[in-house]
Amino acid sequence: MWAVRVKEFGGPEVLVPERVPAPAAGPGQVVVGVDVADTGFVETQIRRGAWQDYFPIGLPWVPGNAVAGRVLSVGADVDPGWTGRRVATATAEWGGYAEQAVALAETLVVLPDEVEKAVAAALLHDGVTALGVFEPAAPAAGETVLVTAAAGGMGVLLVQLARSAGARVIGAARGAAKLDHLRTYGIDVVDYGEPDWPARVRELAGPRGVSVTFDGAGGALGRAAFELTADGGRMSAHGAPGGGFATVDPREAERRGVKLRGITDVQFAPVEAARLAERALELAAAGRIVPMIGATFPLERAADAHAAIEARSVVGKTVLTVGRQQA
User: Fold this and answer.
1) Which residues pair with 103 in a beta bridge?
2) Interatomic CA distance for residues 261 and 133, integer angstroms
């Protein structure tokens, strides 16, 4: 089968399609025929050799940890009734950029008829993480929510979730195209490419300030987002595209009464991740959340997909398609 492998850390060019042996399902596992694979910014960083403390990998490495397709085979102790079913699932130890991928049976989620595979793949990571950070923060009607990296795959989902909860949403992103898209959700927007963007957020938030901050940007932008969070508020610092996770002193957060969550709080056990994935697909089937798929590339052009992600040229999510797509 074909898979995209990384044999050395580096730029997008290290993503090379190669022929590799097809996987076999071990006990408690299944093999999924991949139709659509998720991609994410964190994978571009891991590909360059970053975040080994959080996401240790060995080389050669096949990226991708979320796919949608059909179950081809099952291992020992797995119900054979899974064979042939349309599913969305996390992969077992990466391996999603391939024609076939191994997954734990306990992570399988049956794909609702109303949900296309590309939509499911786009939700498997971002939908899970979005719900995982949204549920503990629990924005209430009338509260102001700040979402950084709001035009990204996860950001647009957080915008939709916060809007559906009745919160006022301020979406922060960079560039006219992304801001124009965010306006379609009926929210206020700020361009954090402008030096006075924090002042603009304060103006929009009013005297009550920002009650909940979802920081998908990290770096200096994430630090500024923490400063914008009102005393007694809640913040999730889960993003790192801005050069690292937001550097927030937990003692400062405690002094200000800000409930702070970080990347370690979104490392879900397989069963919890499957629960959140199932919930995300239910919301998608009901039309309550709609992922923005801004770019689609065939598997063999994974390098181009990574280059587009790193260039910040895509609004929303980037996915990879494998072979002929079926319903």
Assistant:
1) 30
2) 8
